[in-house]
TrEMBL record:
<keyword id="KW-0119">Carbohydrate metabolism</keyword>
<comment type="similarity">
    <text>Belongs to the KHG/KDPG aldolase family.</text>
</comment>
<dbReference type="InterPro" id="IPR013785">
    <property type="entry name" value="Aldolase_TIM"/>
</dbReference>
<dbReference type="InterPro" id="IPR031338">
    <property type="entry name" value="KDPG/KHG_AS_2"/>
</dbReference>
<dbReference type="InterPro" id="IPR031337">
    <property type="entry name" value="KDPG/KHG_AS_1"/>
</dbReference>
<dbReference type="GO" id="GO:0008675">
    <property type="term" value="F:2-dehydro-3-deoxy-phosphogluconate aldolase activity"/>
</dbReference>
<comment type="subunit">
    <text>Homotrimer.</text>
</comment>
<dbReference type="Pfam" id="PF01081">
    <property type="entry name" value="Aldolase"/>
</dbReference>
<protein>
    <recommendedName>
        <fullName>2-dehydro-3-deoxy-phosphogluconate aldolase</fullName>
        <ecNumber>4.1.2.14</ecNumber>
    </recommendedName>
</protein>
<dbReference type="InterPro" id="IPR000887">
    <property type="entry name" value="Aldlse_KDPG_KHG"/>
</dbReference>
<keyword id="KW-0456">Lyase</keyword>
<comment type="pathway">
    <text>Carbohydrate acid metabolism; 2-dehydro-3-deoxy-D-gluconate degradation; D-glyceraldehyde 3-phosphate and pyruvate from 2-dehydro-3-deoxy-D-gluconate: step 2/2.</text>
</comment>
<keyword id="KW-0704">Schiff base</keyword>
Length: 204
Protein backbone atom coordinates (compact mmCIF):
# COMPACT_ATOMS: atom_id res chain seq x y z
CA UNK A 1 0.00 0.00 0.00
CA UNK A 2 1.34 3.45 -0.86
CA UNK A 3 1.78 6.03 1.88
CA UNK A 4 -0.98 8.25 0.43
CA UNK A 5 -3.26 5.24 0.48
CA UNK A 6 -2.43 4.61 4.13
CA UNK A 7 -3.09 8.24 5.00
CA UNK A 8 -6.44 8.18 3.19
CA UNK A 9 -7.44 5.04 5.08
CA UNK A 10 -6.45 6.40 8.49
CA UNK A 11 -9.75 8.21 9.18
CA UNK A 12 -12.95 8.60 7.16
CA UNK A 13 -12.75 12.39 7.14
CA UNK A 14 -9.87 14.82 6.60
CA UNK A 15 -10.66 18.20 8.14
CA UNK A 16 -9.77 21.02 5.75
CA UNK A 17 -8.43 23.79 7.95
CA UNK A 18 -8.11 27.52 7.34
CA UNK A 19 -6.25 28.83 10.38
CA UNK A 20 -5.49 32.55 10.70
CA UNK A 21 -4.02 32.51 14.19
CA UNK A 22 -1.07 30.28 15.01
CA UNK A 23 -2.10 30.28 18.68
CA UNK A 24 -5.12 28.20 17.67
CA UNK A 25 -3.03 25.54 15.93
CA UNK A 26 -2.25 23.24 18.83
CA UNK A 27 -5.60 23.31 20.65
CA UNK A 28 -7.35 22.79 17.33
CA UNK A 29 -5.20 19.81 16.37
CA UNK A 30 -5.56 18.39 19.89
CA UNK A 31 -9.37 18.64 19.70
CA UNK A 32 -9.52 16.95 16.29
CA UNK A 33 -7.08 14.20 17.25
CA UNK A 34 -8.93 13.65 20.52
CA UNK A 35 -12.11 13.13 18.49
CA UNK A 36 -10.31 10.59 16.30
CA UNK A 37 -9.52 12.66 13.22
CA UNK A 38 -5.76 12.42 13.06
CA UNK A 39 -5.15 13.42 9.44
CA UNK A 40 -5.23 17.20 9.20
CA UNK A 41 -5.04 19.33 6.05
CA UNK A 42 -3.82 22.86 6.72
CA UNK A 43 -4.61 25.02 3.71
CA UNK A 44 -1.98 27.51 2.57
CA UNK A 45 -4.62 30.22 2.49
CA UNK A 46 -3.41 32.24 5.43
CA UNK A 47 -0.12 33.91 6.29
CA UNK A 48 0.08 31.71 9.37
CA UNK A 49 -0.37 28.39 7.52
CA UNK A 50 3.26 27.22 7.47
CA UNK A 51 3.70 28.01 11.18
CA UNK A 52 0.38 26.30 11.86
CA UNK A 53 1.75 23.15 10.21
CA UNK A 54 4.90 23.34 12.39
CA UNK A 55 2.79 23.74 15.54
CA UNK A 56 0.27 21.03 14.72
CA UNK A 57 3.10 18.59 14.07
CA UNK A 58 3.96 18.83 17.77
CA UNK A 59 0.62 17.25 18.65
CA UNK A 60 0.99 13.56 19.31
CA UNK A 61 -0.88 11.40 16.85
CA UNK A 62 -1.47 14.16 14.29
CA UNK A 63 -0.56 13.51 10.65
CA UNK A 64 -0.29 17.00 9.23
CA UNK A 65 -0.36 17.90 5.57
CA UNK A 66 -0.62 21.06 3.51
CA UNK A 67 -3.60 21.87 1.31
CA UNK A 68 -4.20 24.45 -1.41
CA UNK A 69 -0.69 23.81 -2.72
CA UNK A 70 -0.80 25.17 -6.26
CA UNK A 71 2.82 25.32 -7.51
CA UNK A 72 6.31 23.90 -6.90
CA UNK A 73 7.36 26.85 -4.76
CA UNK A 74 4.49 26.29 -2.33
CA UNK A 75 5.25 22.58 -2.44
CA UNK A 76 8.81 23.28 -1.33
CA UNK A 77 7.67 25.58 1.47
CA UNK A 78 5.12 23.02 2.64
CA UNK A 79 7.72 20.24 2.70
CA UNK A 80 10.19 22.47 4.47
CA UNK A 81 7.55 23.18 7.16
CA UNK A 82 7.31 19.43 7.75
CA UNK A 83 4.14 18.53 5.85
CA UNK A 84 3.62 14.78 5.68
CA UNK A 85 1.34 14.94 2.66
CA UNK A 86 0.27 17.48 0.07
CA UNK A 87 -3.20 18.28 -1.26
CA UNK A 88 -3.86 20.47 -4.28
CA UNK A 89 -7.15 21.72 -5.73
CA UNK A 90 -5.94 20.70 -9.18
CA UNK A 91 -3.13 19.06 -11.12
CA UNK A 92 -0.57 20.80 -13.29
CA UNK A 93 2.36 19.12 -14.99
CA UNK A 94 4.88 21.25 -13.05
CA UNK A 95 3.36 20.66 -9.63
CA UNK A 96 2.68 16.99 -10.35
CA UNK A 97 6.26 16.36 -11.44
CA UNK A 98 7.74 18.25 -8.52
CA UNK A 99 5.55 16.35 -6.06
CA UNK A 100 6.34 12.96 -7.58
CA UNK A 101 10.09 13.79 -7.66
CA UNK A 102 10.01 14.83 -4.00
CA UNK A 103 8.42 11.51 -3.03
CA UNK A 104 5.92 13.14 -0.69
CA UNK A 105 2.43 11.57 -0.59
CA UNK A 106 0.38 13.72 -2.95
CA UNK A 107 -3.35 14.10 -3.46
CA UNK A 108 -4.06 16.34 -6.45
CA UNK A 109 -7.53 17.60 -7.30
CA UNK A 110 -9.32 16.15 -10.32
CA UNK A 111 -12.82 16.74 -11.63
CA UNK A 112 -12.73 15.09 -15.06
CA UNK A 113 -11.27 12.16 -16.97
CA UNK A 114 -8.47 14.24 -18.54
CA UNK A 115 -7.21 15.31 -15.09
CA UNK A 116 -7.19 11.70 -13.92
CA UNK A 117 -5.33 10.56 -17.02
CA UNK A 118 -2.72 13.29 -16.54
CA UNK A 119 -2.28 12.04 -12.99
CA UNK A 120 -2.01 8.41 -14.07
CA UNK A 121 0.69 9.44 -16.57
CA UNK A 122 2.67 10.77 -13.61
CA UNK A 123 2.17 7.54 -11.68
CA UNK A 124 -0.55 8.94 -9.41
CA UNK A 125 -3.73 7.01 -8.68
CA UNK A 126 -5.12 8.67 -5.55
CA UNK A 127 -6.98 11.94 -6.09
CA UNK A 128 -9.07 14.55 -4.40
CA UNK A 129 -12.38 14.85 -6.28
CA UNK A 130 -12.88 18.61 -6.23
CA UNK A 131 -15.18 20.49 -6.06
CA UNK A 132 -17.16 17.38 -5.23
CA UNK A 133 -20.68 18.74 -4.96
CA UNK A 134 -20.41 21.49 -7.57
CA UNK A 135 -18.74 19.12 -10.04
CA UNK A 136 -21.84 16.91 -10.10
CA UNK A 137 -21.87 15.16 -6.76
CA UNK A 138 -22.08 11.42 -6.31
CA UNK A 139 -23.48 10.68 -9.82
CA UNK A 140 -20.53 12.50 -11.37
CA UNK A 141 -17.96 10.62 -9.31
CA UNK A 142 -19.69 7.30 -10.04
CA UNK A 143 -19.44 7.95 -13.77
CA UNK A 144 -15.86 9.14 -13.50
CA UNK A 145 -14.69 6.25 -11.32
CA UNK A 146 -16.16 3.57 -13.61
CA UNK A 147 -13.46 3.62 -16.33
CA UNK A 148 -10.68 4.07 -13.75
CA UNK A 149 -11.44 1.15 -11.49
CA UNK A 150 -8.11 1.17 -9.65
CA UNK A 151 -8.26 4.84 -8.84
CA UNK A 152 -9.46 5.99 -5.41
CA UNK A 153 -10.75 9.38 -4.32
CA UNK A 154 -11.13 11.80 -1.46
CA UNK A 155 -14.14 13.90 -2.48
CA UNK A 156 -14.02 17.41 -1.03
CA UNK A 157 -16.05 20.56 -1.55
CA UNK A 158 -19.58 21.09 -0.31
CA UNK A 159 -19.63 17.91 1.78
CA UNK A 160 -21.29 18.13 5.18
CA UNK A 161 -21.74 15.95 8.24
CA UNK A 162 -25.11 14.90 6.80
CA UNK A 163 -23.84 13.94 3.34
CA UNK A 164 -20.41 12.47 4.18
CA UNK A 165 -21.68 8.93 4.75
CA UNK A 166 -23.28 8.81 1.28
CA UNK A 167 -19.91 9.59 -0.25
CA UNK A 168 -18.09 7.17 2.02
CA UNK A 169 -20.41 4.38 0.92
CA UNK A 170 -18.89 4.47 -2.57
CA UNK A 171 -16.27 1.80 -3.39
CA UNK A 172 -14.04 4.38 -5.07
CA UNK A 173 -13.98 6.62 -1.99
CA UNK A 174 -11.42 6.06 0.78
CA UNK A 175 -12.18 9.20 2.77
CA UNK A 176 -13.70 12.61 2.27
CA UNK A 177 -12.56 16.10 3.13
CA UNK A 178 -14.40 19.07 4.49
CA UNK A 179 -14.21 22.30 6.37
CA UNK A 180 -17.39 21.69 8.37
CA UNK A 181 -15.42 20.33 11.34
CA UNK A 182 -14.12 23.76 12.24
CA UNK A 183 -16.75 26.46 11.75
CA UNK A 184 -15.57 30.05 11.21
CA UNK A 185 -15.23 32.27 14.25
CA UNK A 186 -13.93 31.76 17.73
CA UNK A 187 -13.31 28.03 18.18
CA UNK A 188 -15.27 25.90 20.64
CA UNK A 189 -12.75 23.11 21.16
CA UNK A 190 -15.19 20.86 23.01
CA UNK A 191 -17.70 21.10 20.15
CA UNK A 192 -14.90 20.54 17.61
CA UNK A 193 -13.78 17.36 19.41
CA UNK A 194 -17.41 16.18 19.51
CA UNK A 195 -17.88 16.86 15.79
CA UNK A 196 -14.62 15.03 15.09
CA UNK A 197 -15.83 12.06 17.13
CA UNK A 198 -19.03 11.87 15.06
CA UNK A 199 -17.07 12.16 11.80
CA UNK A 200 -14.52 9.56 12.89
CA UNK A 201 -17.37 7.14 13.57
CA UNK A 202 -18.61 7.33 9.96
CA UNK A 203 -17.82 4.17 8.08
CA UNK A 204 -15.23 4.50 5.35
C1 LIG B 1 -11.02 22.58 -0.07
O1 LIG B 1 -10.12 23.34 -0.26
O2 LIG B 1 -10.84 21.37 -0.04
C2 LIG B 1 -12.40 23.12 0.07
O3 LIG B 1 -12.40 24.50 0.26
C3 LIG B 1 -13.17 22.47 1.16
O4 LIG B 1 -14.48 22.56 0.79
P1 LIG B 1 -15.64 22.81 1.85
O5 LIG B 1 -15.30 24.12 2.53
O6 LIG B 1 -16.89 22.94 1.01
O7 LIG B 1 -15.67 21.66 2.79
Amino acid sequence: MSRIDEIMRTAPVIPVLVVEDVAMARPLAEALVKGGLTVLEVTLRTDAALDVIREMKQVEGAIVGAGTVTNPQELEQAIEAGSEFIVSPGLTETLGRAAVDSGIPFLPGTANAGDIMRGLDLGLDRFKFFPATAAGGIPALKSLAAPFHKVRFCPTGGITEDTASDWLAMDSVLCCGGSWLVPKGSPDYVAIAEGARRAAALAA
